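General statements about sequence and structure are easier to judge against a single worked case. For one protein, we set the task of working out the structure tokens from the amino acid sequence alone. This step matters because it turns folding into a mapping between discrete strings. The amino acid sequence and the backbone structure tokens for this protein are reproduced below.
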Amino acid sequence: MMELIAQNMAPIMFLSLVGFLLLGYPVAFSLAANGLLFFIIGVELAPLSNGTISLSWPLLYALPERFWGIMQNETLLAIPFFTFMGIVLERSGMAEDLLDTIGQLFGPVRGGLAYAVIVVGALLAATTGVVAASVIAMGLISLPIMLRYGYDRRVATGVIAASGTLAQIIPPSLVLIVLADQLGRSVGDMYKGALIPGLVLSGIYLSYVMIVSILKPDWVPALPKEARTLGSGVTSLFVAIAATVGLAWFLIHWMYPTHGDNADILGAALAIIAIYVVALLNRALKLNIMSYLTQQVIMVLIPPLALIFLVLGTIFLGVATPTEGGAMGAVGSLALAAMKGRLNLTVIRQALASTTRLASFVMFILVGARVFSLTFYGVNGHLWVEHLLTSLPGGQLGFLIVVSILVFVLAFFLDFFELAFIIIPLLAPAAEKLGIDLIWFGVILGVNMQTSFMHPPFGFALFYLRSVAPKIPYVDRVTGKQMAPVKTSQIYWGAVPFVFIQIIMVALVIGFPYMVTHYKGKPIDLKDVKIEMPTMPGLGGGGLGVPKLGVPPLGGSGGGVGAPNLGGN
């Protein structure tokens, strides 16, 4: 009996961890306690394991070195930087300005407020990278407006919760940083690979709202004219966009000979700066060359776009590492908050407290995961998992389908950090052995982990929204009408269509890998490769300029790189 336990220690250890988690113990302590408990058992049963267990007491000396490796990991330093940036921006009022302006822009269209929430959700995702900040900000600002003008409660809450989760997959996502670290890949490559899937997912959300506006127009009414305080002037906005695109096209072609592929980002940045300067001059000098709506849209959109370029643009250009990009983003968020007059000691104190709390949470889970993995690898658990997964039918596709289903089910009980630190280290070796690109694999898992925020019982985005949605009847401050509260069941049912959309997105990323693998750049055509060897004069004709290295005949003249002349005189 003891021999059987010793030879099957890996599956027993894994099932024991699942039991600890289901009992409700904190993840970090469950990992560490499980690892130490089975280390003691493994050392005692090692003689009975027939070589399966390779644990001994001196192996514990490796733990301090593993902990020090966590503390030295510069990649993980990006997590507190991006967290701090997101919280400061959330306090700076940027979300309010974006939602108000974009809501006015899309207001005349059915579903306009829902479109605005999705667009702003994508922008907040690209600036904050924090789901909680996005969901709470949009829930506080846009939910009362959507309820005021007759939006269906399920659609309104579903759109807000789903748009907030875009911070999971659109760079600079904290999830992508952790995934890149656990997969041993570059964070910059992970960001490049995830950018297109994140934008495609945002487009599918917009398409869903459009379908709802066609089939159920009374669920998503247009904003009434009296509520559109910024006036009209959409034609002026189209002209401004066309002028910006034209200027960017000219700058890109002009800069391409000197800057190469980087000309795209630089040209677009200069064009955006130019239109922003025009809007500032129009407001300061009252030039009236653009409508008030256009001026407001440009002045509200450009600062977050500038911050996105400061963070992501510098990373994609290779100017900064993700950690350095996060540091610049943190400084940029402080500058934006100061420009709006929202920067004070209270904001900084709250941001530092929240950042410290999240960074400590991540570090404790990492420490626990290191203890668990030391024992798990000592009982050959990695070989057990690898054999289990690589023997699945269907090769790469079968592996990806089974893993996607596994992660989707586990997301009902674990959040994304726990999934990343527990599951990814077990899955990555099997994926690499099957020849799967690990950046592609990481993006598939990242999209899948979004569902952990969206479905019960532990959908954190739903909890965040529940915390700010009205729980009791209230009087609307604009219309003076008595408004019904939002039920928890309405929040849950509103999230269901978006969970299905995220599952469809997982299938699209699996089916069209080039959405991710474009980060590698264009493949090299070997027909265009030409190898030239430099000639090496004066060393003899060895073909292709390589000298003859043979031994000269005995008694011959002793030049060259052969043996010395052994003939006598």
Remarks:
- The beta strands are 474-475, 482-483.
